[in-house]
Every structure is written in C-alpha cells, then in structure tokens.
Amino acid sequence: MNLPKTWVRFTAVAASLAIGVYSCTDYDYDDPAPLSETPADIAVDWSTMTLYTIRFSSFNTPTYSSRSLGYMGLTMYETVVHGSATHRSLSGQLSGLTLTGPEAGEDYHWLLALNAGQYFLIKKLYPVPGNSHRYVQDRIDSLHNAQFRLHSKGIDPAVIDRSIAFGTSIAQAIYDWSVTDGGDKGYTSNFDPAFVFPKGESYWVPPVRGQTVSDYPLHPYWGQNRTFVAANGLLPVPPIVPFSKDPASEYYKLYNSVYQKDPTLKSAEREIAAWWADDPTETASPPGHSYYLTTLAVKKVHADVITAAEAYAHVGMAVADAFINCWKAKYTYFNERPSSFVKKYINEGWVQFWPEPPFPAFPSGHSIQASSAATVLTDLFGEPFEFTDDIYVGHRRFDDIRFTGLTYPARSFTSFREAANECAYSRFLGGIHTPQDNATGIQEGIKIGGNVNALQWRK
After folding, report:
1. For domain 17-178, which CATH number applies: 1.10.606.20, 3.30.70.330, 2.40.160.10, 3.30.160.20?
2. pTM score, two decimals?
3. DSSP 3-state of 317
4. What stretches in the chain show pLDDT beneath 50?
5. Whose CA, among 45, 68, 267, 444, lies 20 to 30 Å from 20?
6. CA distances from 217 to 214, 221, 328 (A)
7. Do 367 and 441 touch, CB atoms closer than 8 A?
8. Do domains 17-178 and 205-453 have the same CATH topology?
9. What pLDDT is recorded for position 22?
10. Which class does domain 205-453 fall in?
11. How far apart are CA 386 and CA 177, in angstroms?
C-alpha cells in the first residue's frame, strides 16, 4: 500500500510501534513503581498513534481533530489519575461530566488501564468503516497488543482484568459524554450544502486557490458545540474592526498590509509560512502540531506518566475549546479573507502565497489554538523552555510553482509562547490572515488556556 510521502517519518514511527514499543528508558515493568516514578513511554506511544490516525483518517479537519485530541487527552489522564498521590480527577469539574472511580481497596495496574482506555476511544472516534482505514486500525491493534504484552507480564490475572475493565469504563463514559457535545461524527457533515450565505461586502467567499475544493464553509455550526471547560463557553465573542473600503480606514490598512508584505517575502519567511501551514490534507492539522509539541516537552524533561497524561489532557482540551470559540467568532462575523478584499479594492490579479482554508477568517484558528496550547504548556513546564520542533523535517510539497524549492529544516524556540507567536505570524506571511486575525487569536488563546489551567488538577 502506498502512503503519502510527506509523512514517511511519522509513518515509520507508527510502523515501529506495530512490532514493538518505543522505550526511552530502562524500567522493570514486572514490578511497577508509583506513577510519579514511571516513565511516560506508553503515553508517548499513544499520542504518536493518535496523530498518525488523525493524519490518515478519511476526513481530516482541524475542527474534528481538535475535538478528538480533547477526548483522547482527557481519557489518558482519567485512566491513571487515581493511581497518583498528588493529582485529582476532573470528574465534576468539566461541563457536565461525572465519572465513577475505581473500587476502594482493590489493586489496579494503571498502565493497563491507560492502554485499554486509549484503545477503546480511538476506535470509537475513528471507526472502520467511517473515518479510518483498515491499515490504520491494524496499527492501532498492534500497539494495543504490544503494550498489553509488555505490562501484563507477571501481573495477577484478576488485576489485569480489573484494570482493563476500569480503563474501558472510563473511556466509555467519556465517549458517551462526547456524543452529546454537538460534534459527534462531525466528519460526516464537514460541508453543509443547505448553508445560507449572508450577503454583504465584508463576507467570506469560497477561495479560488484553496486547500480544499468546496463551495461551502467548513463546519458552520461548530461554534455551538459544548466546550470542555464551562468558563470557555462563557467567553464573549471578541470585537472586530468594522468593514471599510476607505484607504484611510483601519480595516483597509489591515488588508493592504497583507498585500504589501507578499512581494517582499524572504526565503526564511516562506519557510515559516510553510512550516506552520499544517494542511489537514497532508498533516495531523494545527491541533495535532500542538499535541506533537507536547510530546517533545514530555520527552525532553523525561516526564513520568502522570505528568505526561496531565500535559496531553491540558493541551487536548485547550485546543478543542479554542476551535469551538474560534468557530463561534468566525461564523458570527463571516469575515472575508485578504484575497477577496485585495482583489476587489487593491489588485484584482493578486494571488496570496499560501492556499486558503475553506472557512471565514476572523480570528485565526492557528493563532488561537497555538496560543491556548502555549498557555497550558508554559504553566506545566515553565519558561524559558528550549526545544526544537522537527515535525516536518523532510517534508516536501511541489504541487505549486510558488512552493518549489521550499525546505523544511527543524525550528528551534526558547519558549512555547515564541513558537505560538511564530505560528500566528506565519498566517500573515502566507497571505491568508490580517494582523488583527492573529493578534485576536493569541489573546483569546491565552484566556482559553488560562481557564484549563484553573481547573483543580492537584489534591
């Protein structure tokens, strides 16, 4: 079977998981230590498999993938949290979620519970037939089976059964809760042909040069979905600069700044735009990029499994809520992209550097999710935090003459905030967002991530 060459490195990682389990440290799994002393290998393996599954799903969108990461991260955390002496469950703290804890006085193997929970939920979110391919499911099965063999050696069969049952029950409860959020099986209704376009000069129109060919906008009702954190659902829609075609107006200057920047783009700036493009037709999408940065942080600090699970839960829920709030604003204003404004009022022959996504502009989805992720990761791992992002090393794209010769060297940062700011700026460099779109996304992401941080994660 031929897979896209653009993610061969990611595919190779998943292939290794099919025959074995990644391990960055020596550890005696026959005699498990407390979670605070247990390496995060299993959490890293499952996060990698989750991104692989998203990348090769049948209908990959940033909206649905952000939702999936929210539930996968939360499930990872809840299947191990009761084994921690320092952390507490989020049951009762989220928007209507109540979970049943483990049986008092009984022994559990928490890594087996985590393995069971991830396995159950990812198959629910990406079923076959539906939104996943058979070869993806085979790799999921291989990872689950390898983890089971590793962690069940020498363990009392009763503990094994009890642990698997608990992990599965947590995943089942979280999945049942997910069905009521408004985004269940969102991949079946990406574009609504019954959607009625608003009429006006400032409104979005389907792109001529886009990532996805569609006459309709992506998930127009996603902003009505339930957020993970209730406080995020109560955040007001941010204000927007009012439309004007007057060259002296703030609105005109915002769009003209995008147009003026394009012919001055340097090679390094094109690389920035390309690195953060996170095109869902070729990658695990923007929220997947943030989940990957979480893995980089977990591996750099040699995090224990409870810290890793907490990090994935933080980031997953933050990017999920970010996309809900972003979409609420996008479809409140239905704001146009720079391409349509520039073509109407500045230069009708202009073509922006990067292809547009199929939905309105304000605010930037990249910016809001990257900022929300940076906010929670900084809370967990501190600042400064030096890391090198290598997710697209070796990536190539040659379907457009403007991309020919682009390279994708790894990018290094001194903090998560620096990376988020570059992600936001990349959308301006790509010609698909104004500075207002990006600045608002950064500001809103800080609020969203702050509300995730404010949950009671510790006893």
Report:
1. 1.10.606.20
2. 0.93
3. helix
4. 1-29, 398, 401
5. 68
6. 7, 10, 13
7. yes
8. yes
9. 47
10. mainly alpha
11. 37
